[in-house]
Amino acid sequence: xxxxxxxxxxxxxxxxxxxxxxxxxxxxxxxxxxxxxxxxxxxxxxxxxxxxxxxxxxxxxxxxxxxxxxxxxxxxxxxxxxxxxxxxxxxxxxxxxxxxxxxxxxxxxxxxxxxxxxxxxxxxxxxxxxxxxxxxxxxxxxxxxxxxxxxxxxxxxxxxxxxxxxxxxxxxxxxxxxxxxxxxxxxxxxxxxxxxxxxxxxxxxxxxxxxxxxxxxxxxxxxxxxxxxxxxxxxxxxxxxxxxxxxxxxxxxxxxxxxxxxxxxxxxxxxxxxxxxxxxxxxxxxxxxxxxxxxxxxxxxxxxxxxxxxxxxxxxxxxxx
Length: 321
Description:
It is a single chain. By secondary structure, the chain is α/β, with parallel strands linked by helices. The chain folds into two domains: 6-220, Rossmann fold (3-Layer(aba) Sandwich), CATH 3.40.50; 231-294, 2-Layer Sandwich (Alpha-Beta Plaits). Helix content is 31%, strand content 29%. The chain has ten helices and 14 strands. The protein has helices at residues 46-54, 75-80, 97-107, 112-125, 141-153, 171-184, 197-203, 242-246, 273-283, 297-305; strands at residues 6-17, 20-31, 35-39, 61-66, 69-70, 82-85, 159-163, 189-194, 206-211, 214-220, 231-236, 251-258, 261-266, 287-293. The strands form three sheets. A six-stranded mixed beta sheet has the order 6-7-8-3-9-10, sandwiched between helices. The radius of gyration is 24 Å and the shape is elongated. 36% of the residues are buried.
């Protein structure tokens, strides 16, 4: 049975151009009220993935389901549940905001009796009322981006997809768009792509990192769900055998840093600090340093996308630490 809280689901999604995979075996879910960030360097496959979600590209293999409706089985029905803003907003500079949104409402098939309210609601959500009669071509890039978001939500879709929504904006405009995206989550579930780490951290509940067309990492961004630390740095006055450190419960690997100094890699969900203290006392090692080293999302992002050899995560909902 389909989980009603899952509004968008991709399974085994791949797109191949000849022998090259632009996107390979993408599996993810977007849940109700969630802001999901698709993070990756330029060329990672983010925009291609979003275009497959939106129905602009047909996947080579795999499926996309939006609110229980298969994108391939009933594309028109699925599209009603989705709003999409590409990296270049589909705006008409010769129209006013009201004229543009009226045109978008007609394209989405909003009945005439409900069209005015839909336009008003979209302008309210995007704070466009003060410039409603101005030509879009005379607006700042930040307000043009707001117009693009307004067209994506005018038909009240369950899922809103935003591709690089703050690219080219100044810092003040970026802050305003980030606030707008967070506010959208009260009425819609949002997927946004970005290659900018602070962008994802500022607005998202969960992040998926892509590299070379694959998902290589998944992580919740709330502090309660994130691992407390990834490694322990320990130091002793006496000799502590590395092989004895390696068998302590919760320790997955030991790095020798120097004389009597080590970095202990912590197994997921474990806290080996009490066991390290006990082992040091029993062994007479003279513990003088025990420091938890936290691995930031930035550390993870750099580690996964900077090298040439990347191992994709195998579990659809795994968290790599």
